[in-house]
Amino acid sequence: MRLQLAYAVAGLLVFAAGAQAVELRHITVRKGIDGLDAAPLTVTNRAATPIVCVAELAHWYSAELGRAETGAELRIDLWRDPSTGAFVALNDKQENMPVEALWCGLEGRSYQTRAAIRLDRTRGGPVRSSVGCSEKADRLVCG
Asked: Do the beta carbons of residue 103 and residue 66 sit within 8 Å?
């Protein structure tokens, strides 16, 4: 019984020590477009089915940026920080959401059929303004 109590107390101390290691702090979220350059991207759907375009905002979060029917164009409003080359999308509160990756895929199977859209993150480098996507071997190919 004493041994079990000793293990319980030791476990509680380890848990308490770990809890103190977590630092909670306020994070300021950048809002608006001040200091950012417009970097809109037009995606033309040349596939036989509708497509969906998605931004990966963090390794655990993504957001749909739009859909395009066959033959249609989708305009994706992106912004780029010229000092870092980082791309952002704005949410409904005008908060900057850093875009880690951008891809489009066939509607209904967008993740399985996705094609990456390359974003040039070179500071001051050219910004791609349009891309065409077509279906090849049951996947989307964009270039």
From this structure: no
CATH architecture designation of domain 37-142: Sandwich (2.60)
Q: What percent of the chain has pLDDT over 70?
A: 84
DSSP 59-102: TTEEEEEEEE-TT-EEEE--EE-TTT--EEEE-TT-BEEE-SEE
Q: How far is CA 141 from its chain centroid?
A: 19
Each residue of 60-102: pLDDT tens digit?
899 999 999 999 999 999 999 999 999 999 999 999 999 999 9
Instruction: Determine contact, residues 47/140, Cβ cutoff 8 Å.
Output: yes
Neighbours of 91 (CB within 10 A): 13
The yes-or-no verdict on residue 21 having pLDDT over 90 is no
Report which of residues 127 and 108 the model is more confident about.
108
Domain residue limits, the chain: 37-142
Tracing tokens 């477009």 back to the chain, one arrives at 33
